[in-house]
Amino acid sequence: MLRGLASRFVYSEDAPESVDALIAEQKTFYDLRAPDFGNANHRDRIGWTSLDPQVLRNVVDEFGPHGDVLELACGTGWLTRELARHADAVTAVDASEAMLDRAKEIDSDGVRFVHADIFEWTPDRAYDVVWFSNWLSHVPPTRFDAFWSFVASCLKPHGRVGFIDEDERATDNDEMITVGEVPVARRWLRDGSTHRVIKVFWRPEQLAARLEALGWTAQIRRLGESNLYGEAHRLDA
To answer: Average per-residue pLDDT in the chain?
Structure first.
């Protein structure tokens, strides 16, 4: 078990794949999953507890993503529209072109879509806010520190970070395995094919402590039956 993480593991694979290979497989899955993403009639995992749309709207309203906002891993744009209600401008980034094609269907002014791998992308400016939904759990443990360093590089002085994700209460929704030291969930498509995505389930207090060690202060609380919501900013800001 990896320290600071909560998960239920079915078994381990001593696979030769690199973390890069797992990230590539994860991207491929979401490319293929895009047409059915969010469709409760075609689920990709054992179980799933969705948040009430009004709860999500209230969380975004509470956070208040004002100014120039960067949304990482926007997916189908399920929260991009809510961010755009507050922001002067939104830059929405995703590695899946198929997901972005769906996101571009939303009717929101001031949204710029960028097709890019978040682990390789360099922003063209600094932002007042960085936001990500159901993305942090897809960041492998070995990339966690580097990811938060990247997030810091995207922010203006006194910028803020907001995020929503599943917490450890959602572990029973997936069949979990480990590949090397990386926690991985099996997912499937409508055609029955199976794929692996990185899935790290954090406890709020452990995530807050990990971020504090990296120079962040974070307020993180549970949300609904299996999610968490957090707001963070740099301690030196």
So the answer is: 90
Say how far apart CA 144 and CA 129 lie, in whole Å.
Answer: 19
Q: Distance (Å, rounded) from C-alpha 131 to C-alpha 145?
A: 17
Structure tokens given for 183: 């926690």
Under a CB-based contact definition with an 8 Å cutoff, are residues 197 and 139 in contact? no
Report how many domains make up the chain: 1
Cβ-count burial of 122 within 10 angstroms (0-12 exposed, 13-18 middle, 19+ buried)?
exposed
Note the pLDDT tens digit of each residue in 68-85.
999 999 999 989 999 999
d(CA 176, CA 7) in angstroms, rounded, equals 8
Please report where in the chains the tokens 């992308």 appear, as a residue.
Answer: 121
* Dihedral over alpha carbons 70, 114, 188, 222 (to 10 degrees): 0
pLDDT attached to residue 17: 63
Match 């890019």 to its residue by tokens: 116
**107-111, 121-125, 155-159: the lowest-pLDDT one:** 107-111
By the 10 Å C-beta count (0-12 exposed, 13-18 middle, 19+ buried), 190 is classed as middle
pTM of the shown model? 0.90
CB 73 within 8 A of CB 137: no
CATH code, domain with 152: 3.40.50.150
Domain that holds residue 157: 11-234
Q: Are strands 175-179 and 155-166 parallel, antiparallel or unpaired?
A: unpaired
Q: Would you place residue 5 in the very low, low, confident or very high pLDDT band (cuts 50, 70, 90)?
A: very low
Q: Does the residue 82 lie in any domain?
A: yes
CA atoms within 13 A on the CB side of 139: 25
Q: Is 1 within the bounds of a domain?
A: no
